[in-house]
Design a protein that fits this description.
Strand content: 5-15%
Structural class: alpha/beta
Number of strands: 7
Amino acid sequence: MSNRMTIIDKDYTQWVEDLSVRYRQSQVKAAVKVNREMLRYYWELGRDIEEMHVEKRWGEGVIKNLSADLQHRNPNSSGLSARNIYYSKKFYLLYHQYFAILPQVVAELGNEDVPQVVAQTSEVVPQPVEQLEEMLFSIPWGHHRYLMDKCGKEPTKALFYIKKTMEEGWSRDVLLNFMDTNLYEREGKALTNFTRTLPDETSDLAQELTKDPYNFAFTGITGRYNERKLKDALLDNISQFLLELGTGFAYVGKEYKLQIGQKEKFVDLLFYNLKLSCYVVIEVKIGEFDFQDLGQLSGYVVACNHILRKEGRDNPTIGLLICRQKDSLLAQYALEGSNLPLGISEYELSKLYPEKVEGTIPTIEELEAKLGTETT
């Protein structure tokens, strides 16, 4: 028989709930701390391998020997395989240049000779160095291994995905999905007039929330289709659609009715973006963009500002046209003719693959070399 006493008291119940929450939070904090210390260890291990020239000094097979010796001295370890040691070296080599350059850059801000590599990565490389360390050591090692495999020798690209993972809390599967669909190359690439039509403090964020092209492969559409079928497929997969749109988008409605005088008008897809505090009107066109498409979108944006937008709470409505194809010059001319914040993007129904295909199939020698490095 259990000796457990039942206490019916709201203060006690609330205290138990608070203790449970605090315990779970402490577990998360402990896991984050362990992860950070482990990543720091891998970083320093990779630095030692590189700075001590261990492979040149003791031969190419030294990593396997090192793994065996470390595991012999640490029999309960699970992260000292030869594979992880090789990754430690890659980890250090991928990012170490920023630790050497950034302190100098901080001192030279405003100097025209600031290294180009830092100028190109100012959006994703934080300053000072402590912030970069915080970024690198805040996501799991498994995420880092995927980044090293996918990003190769492109630290800017890898840092972009690290920043997104931190901000969005991506799992490894979500991270892989966005890397496979080339998010780095697509994000912020829509043609827009935001710099001219939005305040400086919001135009950059609004631009960042766009993509070009949008990846609608999750709809599963492969044959002939019309606009209704595409919109239905998007909403049948609303979770994937919201994930593709990005953080902060809340779905409001499809074919959303706007009563304008004696007329009823229907917005294709209406969203609210919590980051921008504004409504976002999305029109989907299965054909090629033309001038009149933007005219229709502009009318919906104006109507939303009058009917839905609350003064002092909501920022001006943004319009986004997503079409199957566009002529960039034609789209740019159309955007220049409007004082409303508008953007134009394309979409793809098939999975987006990198343009480079030739040479991506490894040779027998490369496979054998890779298998050799993965031996634990």
